[in-house]
Amino acid sequence: MISDLQKALADRPWLDPQAVPQIVIDNVSKAYDHVKAVDGVNLKIHKGEMFALVGGSGCGKTTLLRMLAGFTEPSAGRIMIDDADMKNVPPHARPVNMMFQSYALFPHMSVEKNVGYGLRRMPMAEAERKRQIEEALEMVQLGNLAGRRPHQLSGGQRQRVTLARALIRRPKVLLLDEPLSALDKKLREQTQFELMNIQYKVGITFVIVTHDQEEAMALSTRIAVMDRGRVVQVGTPAEVYEFPQSRFVANFVGSTNLFESTITACDAGRITVRSAEMESDLMVDNRGRFSVGQLVCVAVRPEKIMLSKAPVTEAGMNCIKGVVWELGYLGNHSVYRVKTDCGKLLVASAPNVRRTAEWSIDWSDEVYACFAADAAILLQS
User: Fold this and answer.
1) Residue ranges per domain, the chain?
2) Do the strands 50-54 and 205-210 form a parallel or antiparallel pair, or are they unpaired?
3) What is the tens place of the pLDDT at every residue in 123-160?
4) Which residues contact 128 (CB under 8 A, 6 or more apart)?
5) Would you say 110 and 177 are in contact if contact means Cβ atoms under 8 Å apart?
6) CB burial class (10 A; 0-12, 13-18, 19+) of residue 220?
7) Under a CB-based contact definition with an 8 Å cutoff, are residues 356 and 364 in contact?
8) What pTM value is reported for the model?
9) What is the CATH number of domain 255-373?
10) CATH fold group of domain 21-251
């Protein structure tokens, strides 16, 4: 029988020190006119992962993807795929395929011919070629649209044609550059699940570049957050969101409230900080090495903050008094911006669990923004 540990390591091979990664990016840099677009990146990606590269514009994520594809040569470092060094290996000879942000479909060809384009120079019988094309179309649920031209398809259907064309030669690694950016919100959410199901069926490693943090968290097994050419944190979506290792990551992935503070006491399991912005003391669970007098930043996600018209008196709770300054109703949840007595704006969010048009907390209400000590994170200031 497979033990729980073996199952966990099979699902998360990056936790297994004996596991051999499929892709090794070893100290890779890329400079343009003495400006480093990618600066000393080290990553290990395992077979079957859905690995996401996220970051703001100009952070180097697309340059890194292009180096994996072979369209751009590194200035330094090396890239290994299945223990083979990719140095001087041209794009067409690499065991990868790339799905571009633009669909790049041939408008004069049918869906069937677009999908089968990559097989045109491969030595195989026509019956086998036809079988592989049909199989690829069925995989993306487009078998009944094989005869249509790209202009006769919706955006989501064109995206699936592009995916089938990229997968038909069964590359070891599929690279996706902003694959869902051209779709509207609802279709993008639907296509995310389709993409995960397809990746699970084919078992191919996917490396995705996206600026959409929610998309990265929904799709990926792990995320690498990039800033100014460097990887600043790698982890599962939950690790990156719940335990950011820097102010940049806390601010970039999702939204957060940040309080500049000074540590005033370090007790067993609990740290007390004084926030000049709040003019009050805050309690935070002790999860690191900190010392009295150290300047830190307290980060609290909006959904961790509960709004109440009376202070919560439970042990380990922080309560900050303020007034509801702005309120946004977003259907499944509401967002509140609370102005504290000292003028700082806090953001809190709450699910709309009751079906009602009445507000329990409304504009200009005096409230207490409360959060538990274990809901906050201390970051180096």
Assistant:
1) 21-251, 255-373
2) parallel
3) 888 888 888 888 888 888 888 888 899 889 887 888 88
4) none
5) no
6) buried
7) no
8) 0.88
9) 2.40.50.100
10) Rossmann fold (3.40.50)
